Amino acid sequence: MIVSTVELFKHAYGKYAVGAYNINNAEQTMGLFRGNLDSKAPFIVQISKGARSYTDKRMLEAMIRAANEIFPESIFAVHLDHGDEAACMDCIKSGFYSSVMIDASHESLDKNIEITRRVVDAAHAKGIAVEAELGQLGGVEEDIAVDEAAANLTNPDQAKEFVERSGCDSLACAIGTSHGAYKFTGKQGLRFDVIEAIQKRLPGFPLVMHGSSSVPQEEVAKINAAGGSMKGAKGVDATQFKRAAQLGVTKVNIDTDGRLVWCRVHREHFLQHPENFDLRPPGKIFMAEYAKFIAEKNNYLGSAGQLECVRPLFKK
Ligand code: G3H
Ligand code: 13P
Ligand code: ZN
To answer: Which strand (E) or helix (H) includes residue 181?
Structure first.
């Protein structure tokens, strides 16, 4: 069942974080829904601008509709990840999305607020929620490259002003993470001091953590052993998700880890079966492995086991 992002956040706030997982193809979609049902978790399925143009946005939306029929017990929101204004407006018009993210974090504060406000007005008129971003993560987002050294953490005072003036429903904060597989060069990690300061100024307001993949070292080792070359890849410590959730982090975005599962499964499969040229055998393994990965991730987030607790909220 496709549900409201805001309602999912209300239930989760301060207790657990909802996993927001990116999809690009049918195998990811199947594994994602299976893994969330296996772990009895509500979740958010998200589509980036890049994913919308990989095959065709209608293909991804149709896969989500199909998964909703194949897994009728599932409860999830549909979200646009890292949209610009045009993509947000397109999704709002379509009526299919529970929420959109407007990412104008590379703009000045005033311009970011101005753009976000326009998206909020259009979205709220159709009952759709808006995630906005303040501060910049390190790493690469879509086509905007941000030097990791110059990563600009969210200013807690600005966060309060930003939320009040923009009217957004949740805020993506830069709290030490970055996108991709190379997040930290040393002992850096989540900036709980910054999260705490933001929550103090915005009590009860849902915060979003992007760049939350853990980049499991055993996954990286298997990829490298099967011919990959991922030196120095490092991610967020998943055991910290629950502490972040208690401080208001209500949505945790994970994409890279899923790509690592895909990469490991396919590299290992073709290394072990050099005679194979069929996409289905590794595809089958990937769907099962991805489902297992999602279920494990939901344990760290605390969303595992919450499915039947949220269901009564959405009874018609
Ligand atoms: O934050 C970015 C997400 O991982 C989506 O990545 O833009 O390559 O689809 P993408
Ligand atoms: P990762 O690259 O850490 O998976 O982050 C994904 C993300 O933030 C999607 O918006
Ligand atoms: Zn992101």
So the answer is: none
Question: In ligand 2, which atom is closest to the CA atom of 258?
Answer: 4
96 CB burial (10 A radius; 0-12, 13-18, 19+) = middle
As a whole number of angstroms, the distance between CA 32 and CA 47 comes to 13
Q: What per-residue confidence (pLDDT) applies to 207? A: 98
Specify burial of residue 159 (Cβ count, 10 A radius: 0-12, 13-18, 19+): buried
Nearest to 50 by CA among 20, 23, 17: 23
Residue 149's pLDDT is what?
Answer: 47
Taking 70 as the pLDDT cut, the residues of the chain under it are: 139-151
- The pLDDT of residue 189 is 85
Angstrom distance (rounded) from CA 302 to CA 16: 5
Please give the helix or strand (H or E) that residue 226 lies within, else none. none
> pTM for this one?
0.96
The SS3 call for residue 309 is helix
Give dist(CA 234, CA 246) in Å, integer.
24
pLDDT at 111 (0 to 100) = 98
Instruction: Name the residues around ion ligand 3, CB cutoff 5 A.
Output: 210, 253
How far away, in angstroms, is 251 Cα from ligand 3 center?
Answer: 11
What is the Å distance from ligand 3's center to 178 Cα?
Answer: 8
Give the residue, out of 255, 290, 300, with the most ligand 2 atoms within 8 A of its beta carbon, to mutate for a pocket test. 255
Superfamily of domain 5-314: Aldolase class I (3.20.20.70)
Separation between Cα atoms, residue 91 and residue 87, nearest integer Å: 6
Asked if 81 is an active-site residue, the reply is yes
Domain boundaries, the chain: 5-314
Return the closest-CA partner of residue 290 out of 266, 270, 314, 316.
Answer: 266
Q: Residues 32, 66: contact at Cβ < 8 Å?
A: no
CA 289–ligand 1 middle distance (angstroms) = 21
